[in-house]
Specification:
The complex is a heterodimer. In chain A, a hairpin with a 5-residue loop joins strand 18 and strand 19. Chain A has one domain. In chain A, the strands form 2 sheets. A 16-stranded antiparallel β-barrel of chain A has the order 3-5-6-7-8-9-10-11-12-13-14-15-16-17-18-19. A two-stranded antiparallel ribbon of chain A has the order 1-2. By secondary structure, chain A is mainly beta. Chain B is about 35% helix and about 0% strand. Chain B is mainly α. The longest helix of chain B has 23 residues. In chain B, about 50% of the residues are buried. Chain B has 2 domains: about 150 residues, Cytochrome Bc1 Complex, Chain D, domain 2, CATH 1.10.760; about 140 residues, Cytochrome Bc1 Complex, Chain D, domain 2 (Orthogonal Bundle), CATH 1.10.760. Classes of the chains: A mainly beta, B mainly alpha. Chains A and B meet through helix 3 of A and helix 1, helix 9 and helix 12 of B.
Chain lengths: ~425, ~350
């Protein structure tokens, strides 16, 4: 049966390769008549132009407020739908299946001169086992929770280039490598999801708050923000968190697809350790008491040479001893990061190939959280000059979790990644 | 929490006011908001808009054409509009920059007259808001035609044929600089190219472009980032950008748009020219420092030749492959070259056929 399914997918993909007309185009590309490679090295990863477009409040870089608003253009609604066939093997079992890996409904655009918005809603998908999370099988009950992932306003060019504000629920700019715009569908930047046993803060979560960002002529860029720190709903964390990211790019470009960029970041947060009676699991931290502090300090770099891009990130997490239920009285410290090598090639960047290594080093007394993964992927984009918005995606990841009783997992998937 | 609510309220109240306030502030005349609708898709040129105070007429167009080719508008009877905006050279000249009376060299290349009717502002620095205003400029520029409007008008009024034509067109034999400029502008509004392979492709002839030209178009709208400035049917945003271009004379840096606006952000910024018929008018850029289309593509691929402090944020290295560059050049060279006979066949009017 598996063979037939793989053959069917292969035939389907071959048919799509031979299709010359694009199937659809995302709303920004539709608005301007651009194709996706204007902003993406390869969808989903932003190139320098795309990063500047985002930083400039979804307006053409350098064009202070000369944009058609959403009232003058077609409805600015887009969707992203990755789906495919996954083969999962581990020393504890197997699970092979067709899956809808997720669905994003996005709306974004300019409301008024230098005022823009972004909204992302992810509907709940009850398809089981699309999300693989090792032994934490509770997360496999649904592949995606229904959530308002982003709802933010951007006030750009308050001081041209130097001060832009983002307000609402947004993806904080303390990490330069967005997991949401990563090529990888099955292997997240694992360190982003790591925390101490009693700390519900997740580095990768979108946050509610306000963020200032800006860039200067000589390649210096900053991002600073105040956020709730509770990730998803509800917005009731009494103590606010602050963060700062500083980066410098050498050479032409912003370090996304050209130039060499290095940066440092720090996140300084507080979370309650005493919770009231009702805790809403998975939906965020309720307003408890006895808030204790934690930090995430690290550095990142992005190096480019022709079609090659190496991006790396390392950080050290340190949580107050009150969060440490395993070894009380001691601060919970861990570190980890990832190194990713991406290559874009063929005509108009239609081919992406990538390898990635992730690691997490928890404290010795919590070695079950030790983690390593080796991933590789290949994406091929379909379409013509109107848009490149459908990609064939093949990804393999080998994951090793724990130290005393190791869980070894292999995930292989053939997928289609639609954005329109 | 209360502090957050107060802070957010301030943000939501103050910032929109600040942003709205930007619109209500008075603007100098030179700060015209061009293409206020912002980036538009590539496509066919619409009909030319004519200003209500200068409607087209066949006689006015004829007078304008005669004046366009008439060297008697210049101080020493050697330079006409067509000297620098030569139909046989893509309505520009051999360059790299233009020459005026007594062999004087200007600092900038002659912008093309073809399709200039679609440009919201004229000259590389946009200092003229209309073709009519533009037409008046070179006549009294000391290194172009070197004349004065008064002397030029006296010359025209001494040419009986012109006086009769103006009387027929305007109902008066009292020729003015505005009438001369209106006529030249009326002629220039007929210099429109609408029949390039790209135009046919955009009208639905899917075979109008070859494979490599289609690939070039794909790069043009994507990885090449060309349409971030060269957008819309006119293939230009009509805006001003500092591209890190080499100076024609490094000893005398050209300030470009800054000379008009005095805005430091405009230093070294020049108007985006149209890509239509670009193959006909090498060399390129305002300074004529890029000899071929291949050189132009190379300039963009490298993210500019010089790292200007005022480099436009649109300019980033592109990482184009050899084939992508070749395709881009093929698209510009072949697909964008028009074959409109009424424009392509415009020949200079011999002096013997000009009004006497």
């Amino acid at each position: 049966m598996k063979k037939y399914l793989l053959c069917l997918i292969t035939l389907l993909l071959c048919e799509l390769i031979s299709t010359t007309d694009s199937l659809s185009i995302p709303s920004f590309a539709r608005k301007y008549g651009f194709n996706c490679s204007m902003c993406h090295s390869g969808f989903t990863k932003l190139n320098d132009f795309g990063q500047r477009f985002r930083d400039n409040g979804y307006q053409i870089p350098g064009q202070a407020g000369k944009e058609p608003s959403v009232f003058e253009t077609a409805p600015p609604i887009s969707m992203r739908i990755p789906l495919g066939y996954t083969i999962y093997n581990s020393n504890e079992g197997t699970a092979n299946s067709f899956n809808l890996y997720g669905m994003d409904i996005l709306a974004a655009g300019v409301l008024h001169k230098n005022v823009s918005f972004l909204m992302i809603y992810t509907p709940r998908i009850d398809e089981p086992s699309a999300y693989f999370s090792g032994r934490d099988s509770s997360n496999n009950s649904a592949s995606q929770y229904g959530a308002l992932e982003s709802a933010s306003l951007v006030f750009s060019n308050i001081i041209p280039n130097v001060l832009n504000l983002r307000v609402g629920r947004f993806e904080p700019g303390y990490h330069m490598f967005s997991s949401k715009r990563s090529y990888y569908l099955f292997q997240p930047y694992e360190i982003y999801n790591m925390s101490s046993p009693n700390n519900s803060y997740v580095f990768d979560d979108n946050q509610i708050g306000i963020e200032a960002s800006g860039h200067f002529q000589k390649g210096f860029k900053y991002t600073a923000g105040i956020v709730n720190g509770s990730g998803s709903n509800p917005d009731n964390n009494n103590k606010k968190d602050v963060y700062l990211n500083l980066s410098q790019t050498f050479g032409k470009g912003d370090g996304q697809s050209a130039g060499q960029r290095i940066g440092i970041f720090g996140y300084f947060g507080k979370q309650p350790i005493t919770l009231p009676g009702t805790v809403i699991g998975n939906m965020g931290q309720t307003n408890g008491s006895n808030s204790r502090s934690f930090t995430r300090l690290g550095f990142d770099g992005s190096l480019n040479y022709k079609g090659l891009n190496v991006q790396m990130l390392y950080f050290i997490g340190s949580d107050d001893s009150a969060f440490n239920t395993i070894n009380p009285g001691e601060k919970y410290k861990y570190n980890g990061g990832f190194v990713e090598l991406d290559y874009v090639g063929l005509f108009n960047n239609k081919l992406v190939a990538s390898v990635m290594y992730n690691w997490i080093k928890p404290p010795d007394y919590d070695s079950d959280l030790e983690f390593k993964s080796y991933s590789a992927l290949c994406r091929y984009y379909l379409g013509d000059w109107a848009a490149v918005n459908v990609s064939m995606h093949a990804e393999y990841t080998h994951r090793i979790s724990g130290s005393t009783s190791k869980l070894e997992e292999d995930i292989f998937a053939l997928a289609l990644d639609f954005a329109f | 929490m209360r502090r957050l609510i107060v802070f957010s309220s301030i943000v939501f109240l103050i910032l929109p006011l600040k942003v709205l306030g930007q619109e209500t502030q008075g603007k100098p005349i030179t700060m015209v908001d061009v293409h206020s609708l912002g980036p538009q898709k590539l496509g066919n040129l619409p009909a030319v808009m004519t200003p209500p105070n200068n409607p087209q007429s066949s006689l006015k167009i004829l007078i304008g054409k005669q004046l366009y080719f008439d060297t008697r508008l210049s101080k020493d009877n050697t330079i006409s509009c067509a000297t620098c905006h030569n139909p046989a050279m893509g309505w520009s000249d051999a360059g790299p920059t233009s020459s005026g009376i007594n062999g004087q060299k200007g600092g900038r290349r002659a912008p093309p007259v073809s399709n200039a009717a679609y440009s919201p502002l004229q000259f590389w620095d946009g200092r003229a808001p209309s073709l009519e205003e533009q037409a008046k400029g070179p006549i009294q520029n000391p290194i172009e035609m070197g004349n004065t409007h008064e002397v030029m008008i006296r010359s025209v009024q001494n040419i009986k044929g012109y006086v009769e034509e103006f009387k027929q067109a305007y109902g008066t034999d009292d020729v003015s600089i505005d009438m001369v400029a209106d006529a030249i502008a009326a002629f220039e509004r007929t210099v429109v190219t609408t029949d390039s392979p790209f135009d046919r492709y955009a009208r639905g002839e899917k075979n109008a472009l070859s494979k490599i030209e289609k690939d070039g178009l794909e790069i043009f709208t994507g990885k090449g980032h060309c349409t971030s400035c060269h957008w819309g049917p006119y293939f230009s945003d009509g805006r001003f950008h500092n591209l890190g271009v080499l100076e024609f004379d490094p000893a005398k840096p050209d300030m470009g748009r800054f000379d008009v606006t005095k805005n430091p952000a405009d230093k070294g910024a020049f108007k985006t020219p149209t890509v239509r018929d670009v193959a006909l008018r090498a060399p390129y850029m305002h300074s004529g420092t890029e000899k071929t289309l291949e050189d132009v593509v190379d300039l963009y691929d490298k993210g500019g030749r010089v790292r200007s402090a005022n480099l436009d944020p649109l300019i980033v290295p592109l990482g184009l492959s050899a084939y992508e560059k070749k395709a881009l050049v093929a698209f510009m060279r072949i697909s964008m070259t028009s074959t409109n006979p009424e424009v392509a066949n415009v020949k200079p009017i011999p002096a013997s056929e000009l009004p006497k």
